[in-house]
Design a protein that fits this description.
The chain has 341 residues and is of the alpha+beta class. It is 32% helix and 23% strand. α2 runs antiparallel to α3.
């Protein structure tokens, strides 16, 4: 008796393969290569950021003008200064963060404040993803994967000054980082009802103009520093630059960075710890105008991870002559910056 020839039925084999594939998908789900990568429009994200920063600013202004701050302490900084929390911080945080959550579900948003209070999205007003000025000035768009985007929110910068009614220093800020790089910055001054914004490589708000004249030799240096976290920066700056130096103390990282961007200060210098939500928006706007913001050691700052929200290595922000200031060792970070709190 000769050997038996076994022939597979093509239809049966296909049915078995299809059944096996269905079982794998049922158990393990679709492989990543079956799924379309979710992307977000940066132009829409800019427009929404402008709407939300102003929404947060309205809450900040209303609470200050109604004198309903309900202030309390979050603790002390490494340098011993009080960290104040007010109802303005929290209401602005809720307006911005919940607005992003409703408009772009799943977007990574890192805010200075946190709130575990449950909220119904039915109570959150919709956000317009179109802005007339953005549509007029930004002709192109760019879509990037959701997982490449980190949004940094400072719902109320200069809370101590807000408490003291020094309104000129108060800002609300939103920054969009792509792959850790500050790409879109929006800064709102709620008591002036003024908003400035910039998108690196694409454009900026019409109320921001490029400063063409830099400091001339022999002119005094105008250096802006923190009024509440001075460290030893005054002594360091004058030792580095000499006595022909004007030191201006001011509140709020957003305010101080705008002073550089708008040409009223040559450099913003900071030697103590600073959180990334305080500086990301200003960093993006500076970059859009070809300025620079680095640590005092000359390193660029990465904004990709919520695990690293503190910059320990000081800060230098300039429009011109950045590396000249670094070479002159304008200041150095405080020794205790890297100590664990």
């Amino acid at each position: 008796m000769g050997p038996a020839n076994v022939r597979l039925n093509p239809i049966g084999a296909a049915a078995c393969f299809a059944f096996g594939l269905c079982m794998v998908i049922y158990i393990f789900g679709f492989p990543d290569w079956f799924q379309k990568e979710q992307k977000i429009s940066l132009k829409e994200l800019l427009s929404v950021s402008i709407a939300l920063v102003e929404r947060g600013g309205n809450r900040v202004r209303d609470i200050r003008e109604g004198n309903t701050l309900a202030e309390k302490s979050k603790g002390k900084t490494k340098e011993g200064a009080d960290e104040v929390l007010t109802e303005g911080d929290m209401e602005s945080h809720r307006a911005i963060v919940y607005g992003f959550a409703k408009t772009f579900p799943g977007l990574q948003v890192i805010s200075e404040e946190s709130d575990i209070r449950p909220v119904s999205f039915k109570l959150i007003d919709n956000v317009n993803s179109k802005n007339d000025e953005v549509d007029k000035l930004i002709k192109n768009d760019m879509s990037v994967p959701f997982n490449k985007v980190t949004v940094w929110v400072d719902p109320l910068d200069a809370t101590q000054e807000y408490k003291e009614n020094l309104k000129q220093y108060v800002t609300v800020m939103i920054c969009v980082a792509v792959n850790g790089q500050p790409t879109i910055g929006v800064i709102h001054k709620p008591f002036e009802q003024k908003t400035v914004w910039a998108w690196v490589g694409s454009g900026h708000s019409s109320n921001l103009q490029m400063i063409k004249n830099k400091r001339e030799d022999g002119d005094p240096y105008n250096i802006i520093i923190s009024r509440s976290h001075t460290g030893d920066v005054m002594e360091s700056v004058k030792e580095s630059l000499g006595n022909n130096t004007n030191i201006v103390k001011a509140g709020g990282a957003g305010y101080k960075t705008l002073e550089v961007i708008e040409g009223r200060a040559d450099a913003y210098v900071h030697t103590t710890r600073i959180k990334k939500w305080d500086i990301c928006a200003g960093n993006a706007i500076l970059s859009a105008f070809h300025g620079k913001m680095t640590t005092l050691e000359g390193a660029f700052i990465d904004y990709s991870s919520r695990r690293e929200v503190v910059n320990n290595n000081g800060l230098l922000a300039t429009l011109f002559d950045h590396y000249k200031y670094l070479e002159q060792h304008i200041a150095k970070p405080m020794e205790h910056n890297k100590e664990k709190r």
